[in-house]
Amino acid sequence: MTSASPRATQGRRTFLDWLLGTSVGGLAVAVLYPVARYLVPPRSAESAASTVTLPFVPDDLAPNSAKIFKFGNRPGIIVRTASGELRAFSAACTHLGCIVQHRADLGHLWCACHNGHFDLNGINIAGPPPRPLETFIVNVRGDQIVVSKGA
Amino acid sequence: MRRVRGWLAVGWTWLDDRLGLAGLGAMAKKKDVPVHRHTLWYYLGGMTLFLFLVQLATGALLLIYYRPSAEEAYESVQFLMAEVQFGWLIRSIHSWAANLMIFALFLHMFSVLLLRAYTRPRELTWISGFLLFGLALTFGFTGYLLPWNELAYFATRVGTQIIAVIPVVGEFLLRVLRGGDDVTGATLTRFYAIHVALLPATALALLGVHLYLVQRHGMSVPRSVEARGGPARRMPFFPNFFLRDLVGWLSALAILAALAAYIPAELGAKADPFASAPAGIKPEWYFMFMFQTLKYLPAHILGIEGEAVGVLGFGLGAVALLLIPFLDRGGERGGSGRAVTWFGVAIIAFIIVLTYLGYTADPTQ
């Protein structure tokens, strides 16, 4: 040690500083990176379903009423209008994702969370929702209701 | 008797040699509290602390029966309320103490704001306190979901969806927070981990910093009192102030017991991810003013989605409050701080009016 010149000591010290600095940084990354990745949930397979057959028959739906159904892992709502037509939409409100309901007294769809209103074409007509509800295609085959995503 | 006293003396000396109790005793003896017409506000921090300790104790007890899964959470709370002896009491006290703690915290924070006790050298005391306030709200938000009932389910759907308005990373953060695309059992375990492990650990550490700073700088004397020649007298912390604290804490405990007995915590219906949001859905009262504001905002403001504008506004308000010691430039030079007073009063008025509307406005109109 005593034989080393000041300059050599200086060089060695810089090197040690660098080594320590980078290994502390490396340690931090080695700890934090797995933790950060751990916190991100794994991507579950998106529901590939683009068509569902509803677990009830058309006669279960009286005019001016609606039912919630499962479209894959997301909620949908099917409405029978006062004139008897069947229409289906995504039931997730476009405002903050609450599940909408059919209000027979208003004759249209309503979200209880922030008082959003949609008409029976899924168009946002009042309140905070910024966009219309996603519309699905409804086909009745015998006594089966088949709902599918639009093209 | 004399022999017992002798043993106690020996025991005390043994501990003192190792822990330095005499030094702590001397410090406690020196601690005092200024007495003036605003002294009442000094009790609110201690009150918040007491209610927090009640939360730690009752929370630990609830863990014994609670099961954090979408299939079992609701049933385990139902079992706790119906079958477990005094289960209803523990849960009701946990729920009421949470509400009272946040109420005390609001009063504590706004009294400190209006008395401008955050000025030099107490900037960090204010910041640590404000962060604790944020943690308390997070405690409330995550705890609300744990019984997995209908109200909590939709409140969480809405509350978490708000994060998605952040540009670029919003959707990603939403997935991390929910543990998936929707509020599911994965969200429940996440919130459970945050509520019972992450938050208590962080809050205790931050509380240590906050109390150390309060201890280090002593009680702030309001400027109006300073202007009239300072406080008339000071009261020793031990035992005078501490005994008054205790009276407040015992009263709080009595109020808690009464509230828990007469208005026990409700459970409601089990959450169903495939049911319409029920009419009259509402968050905890301390989020009500934000919830109600979001109802009034139109779909678009200047081409930006209404809720994004609202969330941005609340975010800016929170940042302004956090940085108030640095924004209040008059504080250093002994200015009147009228701007801060108006800012504080405006926030309080806004919160009260919107909260009132949240509970009285017709939810369908």
What are the salient characteristics of this protein?
heterodimer; A: 151 residues; alpha+beta; Rieske Iron-sulfur Protein; 2 domains; 6-stranded antiparallel β-sheet; 4-stranded antiparallel β-sheet; B: 365 residues; mainly alpha
First-residue to last-residue Cα separation of chain B: 76 Å
CATH architecture label of the largest domain in chain A: 3-layer Sandwich
Determine the mean pLDDT of chain A: 86
Please indicate the percent range of residues of chain A in DSSP E strands (runs of 2 or more).
25-35%
Biggest β-sheet strands, sense, barrel of chain A: 6 strands, antiparallel
Helix content of chain A: 10-25%
Compute the number of helices of chain A.
Answer: 1
H/E series of chain A: HEEEEEEEEEE
Describe it.
The complex is a heterodimer of chains A (151) and B (365). Chain A has one helix and ten strands, in the order H-E-E-E-E-E-E-E-E-E-E. By secondary structure, chain A is of the alpha+beta class. In chain A, strands 1-10-9-4-3-2 form a six-stranded antiparallel sheet, with no helix packed on it. In chain A, strand 7 (116-118) and strand 8 (124-126) form a beta hairpin. The termini of chain A are far apart. The longest helix of chain B is centred in the middle third of the chain and has 33 residues, at 185-217. Chain B is mainly alpha-helical. Chain B starts with a helix and ends in a 5-residue tail after the last helix. The mean pLDDT of chain B is 91. Chain B has a domain at 25-278: Cytochrome Bc1 Complex, Chain C. Chain B is 69% helix and 3% strand. In chain B, the strands form two sheets. Chain B has a two-stranded antiparallel sheet with strand order 1-2. A two-stranded antiparallel sheet of chain B has the order 3-4. Chain B contains 15 helices and four strands.
